Amino acid sequence: MAAAMGGGSGSSASRAAGLGLAALLKVGTPSAMRQVLDGVYAHTPPGVIKFNDLVVSSGEGCWITTTDGRRFLDMSSGIGAVSTGHCHPTVVEAVRRQAGKVVHAQQNVFGAHEAMVDLYDKLSAVLPPSLDTYFLANSGAEAVDNAVKIARAATGRQNIIAFEGGFHGRTLGSMALTSSKTIYRQGFGPLIPGVHIAPYPYCLHCKAQVARGHAGYPSPAEQAATVAVACGGSSNGGKGAAPRDISCCGGPLESLEWMLATQTAPSDTAAVILEPILGEGGFLVPPPGFLQGLRKLCSEHGILLIADEVQAGAGRTGRWWGHQHWLSTPTGSHPQEGTIGLSLETVHGGGPGDSPDILVFAKGIASGYPLAGLAVRRELVPRDKMPPGTLGGTYGANAVACAAASATIEIINNEGLVQNAALRGAQLMAGLADLAAELPPGVIADIRGRGLMVGVEFGGGGGDSDASMPRHIPPHKGVASAITKACAARGMLLLTAGARECIRFLPPLTISEDEVRQALSVFRDACREVLLRK
């Protein structure tokens, strides 16, 4: 075992046996699993972070089982990818059936395959009608790279504006747009040129809010009440608080306008890209008016708006697409047929309604299978600017992944998972608000999100108990990570988010009312252990 893990040549018999890890795993004990993980890590670059030292054997719904027989409530769902739960029977059957027909009919070799045709039908029913042209890829980062290519080709401009805290991928292109943490791009420069990072409205830490004693920022209970009312419920569960939204100073949009005046001229700026709700950056919800103002600003200057819906899309937030909470974009039908022109009005600056010009999707669109893509207005990809050969990829539109995606869309629609995400998200936020009220004021500094994309940010205490104290005092570093570990020790998986002390709840959209209650119970106990040492 040691010799194999050390990479020695060994005998022909030992070489045939490989590392011997699979045989060891069959022992099924915690110590065997530990040895297997040591072997895996010895052959994996340390740059691949591992949050939990577990080897998964199987999964069902919101639960996973490890090789040593332990069960975990999965509130991470593969960083939001397993939208319909682990091994949903409809997805399993669609994949099994497709794998028995054709596994891969490469998209450049063939005009299409049956699973791709079916997926195009399904996508057209859930995407904004103006986004009528699709490109399928493998990952969100690859789709983002291609969105940038399309924006530059369509506009003839080179610069791209992204936002602080955004995460758009780890490829050389998407990495330049990512600023949620320095770790994702440190040591890999020089990055691609022409990228400018604008301030995002992180209102909890806005100096204007601090100066006002956070009078314009809702409490956790008010945040929960706002979400409850938005999904058609009442404001109870937030300790009787009335719904109240963020009152934004308008600084981020002003900073963006200043950037266009001082750093990247509108005539040089191809696109602005943002996540409708920041994901890895801390699950930040934009304040009222921000996305509408951004759409208006882009349209005025002929700048394309790219919505990165990789994490917020596919029903995750209680709408089919995250941007639909703030931009009035329909779904569900083909756009009207008509003559497509290439005037500056059509190429630069907004399609029908408030739709983004390009929408990027991945993760939950295929229930964990590697499928991603983008939807774009047809006039942005004319043959003269994007001739055959400019887009492609070996595994894009893989037949099995397409079948999984079609099944996923059917499940989300037929089983009411968009509504379930809204209702269970409201339940989760109400429970978290109740927990915040139980703990010392300011220890849970913020609860935010939409649907089943919910973030909790921790503070160092103070806050509401004393009007002279700031709303947010920085907590001890590592608090969020310690709480996720305490949750794992109790049988629940969670992830941190962003450079501050935040935790994200990102369960499958199929999660039940009882499973949300279980999650809240485990989280409460973990918070009390770490924050109160109880």
Keywords for this entry:
single chain, 534 residues, alpha/beta, four-stranded mixed β-sheet, 18 helices, 15 strands, 13% strand, pyridoxal phosphate binding, PyrdxlP-dep_Trfase_small, Aminotrans_3
Describe the model:
InterPro entries: Aminotrans_3, Class-III_PLP-dep_AT, PyrdxlP-dep_Trfase, PyrdxlP-dep_Trfase_major, PyrdxlP-dep_Trfase_small. This protein has 18 helices and 15 strands. The chain is an alpha/beta fold and 534 residues long. Helix 7 packs parallel to helix 15, helix 11 packs antiparallel against helix 16 and helix 17 (479-489) crosses helix 18 (513-532). It starts with a helix and ends with a helix.
Task: Annotate the secondary structure layout.
Elements: H1 2-5, H2 12-17, H3 21-25, H4 30-42, E1 56-60, E2 63-66, E3 71-74, H5 77-80, H6 89-99, H7 114-126, E4 133-137, H8 140-155, E5 159-163, H9 172-177, E6 195-198, H10 207-211, H11 220-230, H12 251-262, E7 269-274, H13 290-301, E8 304-308, H14 344-347, E9 358-361, E10 372-376, H15 399-414, H16 417-438, E11 444-450, E12 453-458, H17 479-489, E13 492-493, E14 495-496, E15 502-505, H18 513-532
Percent helix = 25-40%
Return the structural class.
Answer: alpha/beta
Low-confidence stretches: 1-8, 333-352
Distance between the termini: 42 Å
Query: What does the radius of gyration come to?
Result: 24 Å
Q: Please, how many helices?
A: 18
Assembly annotation: single chain
Work out the strand percent.
Answer: 5-15%
Overall geometric form: globular
**Biggest sheet descriptor:** 7 strands, mixed
Residue-averaged pLDDT, rounded?
Answer: 89
Question: How are strands sequenced across the largest beta sheet?
Answer: 4-10-9-8-7-5-6
Per DSSP E runs of 2 or more residues, the count of β-strands stands at 15
